[in-house]
Structures are given as C-alpha cells and as structure tokens.
Design goal:
Blueprint lengths: L2 E7 L3 E2 L5 E2 L2 E9 L8 E5 L8 H4 L16 E5 L14 E2 L4 E2 L9 H14 L7 E5 L1 H12 L6 E5 L7 H15 L13 H15 L2 H7 L12 H14 L4 H12 L10 H5 L5 E7 L7 H10 L4 E5 L7 H4 L1 H27 L1
Parallel strand pairs: 5-6, 5-9, 9-10, 10-11, 11-12
Antiparallel strand pairs: 1-4, 2-3, 4-6, 7-8
InterPro entries: AB_hydrolase_1, AB_hydrolase_fold, HAT_MetX-like
Pfam families: Abhydrolase_1
Keywords: Acyltransferase, Amino-acid biosynthesis, Cytoplasm, Methionine biosynthesis, Transferase
C-alpha cells in the first residue's frame, strides 16, 4: 500500500494574486521504490475531489499486476494545496491568527498549486520524472507544471483535460457556486458552512461528469407505472450527500475557481506559444462522450504539440470515463511507451549503418 507523508514548507509562499500564505503543508503518498538511477518516477495529479492515495480512486491503474506496479515504479501523488485531505486548506489553522482560515483562505491558481508541488519535488530530490500523469483538474495542473519545469518531465500523459478552461466549463462551475451561495450557512465561519449547498453543487456537477447514456443505462425505471420518486432523482441526492460527507464547500469553491482560471497562455503570449515550449513527450487522451472537457480540446492540444500522441477512450460514462475505462487507458499508455521504444530502436539502427 502507498506510504503516507507530510511535507512542511516553513517559509512564506506568495501566490499568483500577490497574496501570501505563511507556509503550508502538503500531504502526499509514495508507492514503490525509487531505483538507483532515479528513472522510474511517476507523478500523479489528482482530480477535483481526489486525494493523494491513487489506489483509492485509480486503483486499476496502480498496484501489483497493474500498469504502474510498485515493484517497478516509484509513484508520487500529493493532495493539492487548498485541499481537504491533509494539505493546507480552508479548514487548516492560520498560524498567524491561530484560527481556521475558512473564508479568509486566499484564492489560488493551478500555477500556484504546481509551484507548491515543485517544492516537494525538490525536497524529495527528484531531478527528473519519467511520467507526469493527470486527469481533469489534475490534467490542467500537470500541463501547467510541464511548462513550468520543461526539463524535469520526460513524458506527459494528459487525460480528459484542456489548455484553457472553456466558457462552458466556467458556466458549470459558477452554477455550482451559485448553489453554495444560496445556502444560508455559507456566510458563517464554521466547518459545516455551505454543506447543503455543496450537495446541490455536486448534483449539478454529476450532469457534467456523466452522460445521457450513463443515466439511461443505470437509472432507467423498470416498468411503466411510476410517477414519482424516480431512481435518477434519488441518485442525485445520494451523490450530493456522499460528497458532502467527505469534502467541504470551501475547498470545492476554491478548486473550481482554480479550474476556471486555468489558461497556460497567461503571461506566455497565448496558448499556442505556451504549448510550443513543451519539452515532454506527450500523450493526450480524450473520452468520446465527455461533455465537460470535449474531445476537441484534446485534439487541439495534439495538433499544437508536434510529435505528440492522441488516444480516444470509448465510454458511456462521459467525463468520468477517464476513471472508469482503465483498461483502455492502460493500453493507450502502453502503446505510447512502446512507440517511443520502437523509434529509439529505429534511430539506433540508422546510427549503426
């Protein structure tokens, strides 16, 4: 099983907005053993409500007998800055006021998050990373990090994500924040503030994470006599309550804002110029039924990054297909690695001639 650790950064940390954090901590896991060459590192960036434990939410990809077997790989995953699974976030105590941050936790961007991740990477003395892997919000962070430190990451596997968040995605996120704002408790400074609104926000989010086919296959009513208490309705309530019991509205708010602000072209002369700075070998993965991060966003990345690879996952699960269709994703990553090996062998043969 992954080993759990905590990284403490004791110095002030200036955010992109200019706000300061008086230090922070990141909860992270390691899985497997670093080889003597330091060449077997896989760093994973989790999605919006994920944690540092990759085996908890991507277990079919990580583990003995899986693609990333800990007997061969050294896997690192950190809970995002602002998170609620051990990293410094809104429920953490501000060391200056000795009170929880709550609403006073400063807004941050994905660029801030990966700068924090990079301080952890330096602490672990990982000079290079074989594969940087992330999906959804984690894919945004991974792409941002690959641009921030182009000489560190050898390969980028970017799954169901984009280079700049779309107006469509921003609208979905704002609709969820509207639900949180409507909760009368949201104005309070308590751990439970916005909890009922968070339930509604999650229900809204499910409509962007899944697809018409998902609900048709899993929530269709048997027979023809029902007129109320539909399965799809109770499913929405269940999903809202399930998240609210393990998450908090503050973190949800801040991370959705970070997703909205995602734009690798900011201060880099635009998206196309930014992508031209990538040095990692890239695999861009889309899901054919993804409504939130539609396939054209991954195809755009593939077109903009010369020599990159592209794979389309087939799924009835919409955006969540990147978490569900692990067998297809495994095949795509294996093919990505094998293509590189074939190219290296061909180049070697040409040199020998």
């Amino acid at each position: 099983m992954p080993e759990h650790h905590v990284f403490h950064h004791q110095q002030e940390f200036r955010l992109e907005s200019g706000a300061l954090l008086p230090g922070f901590q990141l909860a992270y896991t390691t899985y497997g053993t670093l080889n003597p060459q330091g060449s077997n590192v896989v760093w994973v960036c989790h999605a919006l409500t994920g944690s540092a434990d990759v085996t908890d939410w991507w277990g079919d990809l990580f583990g003995e007998g899986r693609l990333y077997d800990p007997r061969e790989w050294f896997v690192v995953c950190a809970n995002t800055l602002g998170g609620c699974y051990g990293s410094t976030g809104p429920l953490s105590v501000n060391p200056i006021t000795l009170q929880p941050y709550f609403h006073t936790f400063p807004q941050f961007t994905n660029r801030d998050v990966v700068r924090a991740f990079d301080l952890l990477r330096q602490e672990l003395e990982l000079e290079r990373v074989h594969t940087l892997l992330g999906g959804s919000l984690g894919g945004q962070q991974a792409l941002e990090w690959a641009l921030l430190k182009p000489n560190v990451f050898e390969r980028l596997v970017h799954v169901a994500s984009n280079a700049r968040h779309s107006p469509w995605g921003v609208a979905f996120n704002e609709s969820q924040r509207m639900a949180i704002r409507q909760d009368p408790s949201w104005g309070n400074s308590t751990r439970e503030a916005g909890k009922e609104g968070l339930k509604t926000a999650r229900a809204i989010a499910m409509l962007s994470y899944r697809h018409y086919n998902t609900y048709h296959l899993s929530q269709q009513e048997p027979g023809h006599s029902i007129t109320d208490s539909f399965r799809a309705a109770s499913y929405q309530v269940y999903q809202g309550e399930k998240l609210a019991n393990r998450f908090n509205a503050y973190t949800y708010w801040l991370l959705s804002k970070a997703m909205d602000a995602h734009n690798v072209g900011r201060d880099r002369g635009g998206v196309e110029k930014a992508l031209a700075q990538l040095r990692a070998r890239c695999l861009f993965v889309g899901v054919d039924t993804d409504l939130l991060f539609p396939v054209e966003e991954q195809r755009f990345l593939h077109e903009q990054v010369p020599g990159s690879s592209f794979c389309l996952l087939r799924s009835n699960y919409g955006h969540d297909g990147f978490l569900v269709e692990v067998e297809q994703l495994t095949d795509a990553i294996q093919d990505f690695y094998q293509q590189e090996q074939v190219k290296q062998e061909l180049n070697y043969e040409k040199q020998e001639r």
